[in-house]
Amino acid sequence: MFLTKGVGRHKEKLTSFEMALRDAGIAQFNLVRVSSIFPPGCKIIPKNKGLEYLKPGQIVHVVISQESSNEPNRLIAASIGVAIPADSEQFGYLSEHHAFGQTDDKAGEYAEDLAATMLATTLGLEFDPNTSWDEREQVWKMSGKIVRTFNITQSAIVDKTGLWTTVVAAAVLIP
């Protein structure tokens, strides 16, 4: 699997989405959205390496987040959170989060927290949902059951003239 992100702007909403996919390097594939499971034994590789395994026109499975707006100066964000279990035989989680008014850091942290929370509940880890993400992250990592969490996030400010702006973040699964 590889992670990617992009932003596109155009007078047409659909074309702004296409431009975001181009910026992310995945417009040449037939993308099929899938739910948010990080497969057991899966490895994350750099985008340029992952693209070597794919051919234009190929059906490619993705976990993708996208957000669009044409409201001038509006902040938009799309993020994928990843939570990988310590046991490589166990599946992990990916989460999609898209928002208005959130920076890369805020949207990314939220997506990462979503993925980690889903994994923690699957693994039976106890937690107080009212504690901060930083506190829960430390407890879960110290448990030895969650080895790594991270995110990829794209945010953008909508063009001041009102062009459609689309942001995407994606986890691309390689067959």
UniProtKB/TrEMBL annotation:
One of its GO terms (biological process) is L-arginine catabolic process. Its cofactor is pyruvate. One of its GO terms (molecular function) is arginine decarboxylase activity. It comes from the Bacteria. It holds the Pfam family PvlArgDC. Keywords: Decarboxylase, Lyase, Pyruvate. Its EC number is 4.1.1.19. It catalyses: L-arginine + H(+) = agmatine + CO2. Belongs to the pyruvoyl-dependent arginine decarboxylase family. This is Pyruvoyl-dependent arginine decarboxylase AaxB. It comes from Candidatus Thermokryptus mobilis.
